[in-house]
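Appendix B. Chain record.
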Amino acid sequence: MDIIEKELENRRTEIQKEVKALFEANMTITDWDIPEADDLKAAKFLIKIIKEELAKIEKNIANGKYNNY
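Structure tokens predicted for this chain:
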């Protein structure tokens, strides 16, 4: 394991908690804004949005956007 992998592995739990917090915060906001909302539908749509953004980030990585971050 190289130094980058070690650093990110050391922060794995923190990163995972942040992703979960992002999801749960947005579920809470949706529930506040639309109390009668179908939570399952909201969760699936929220995951779709997150995946779309991750795909954009992956594309930017492939195009070298983060080579000199």
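Further analysis of this model is presented in Appendix C.
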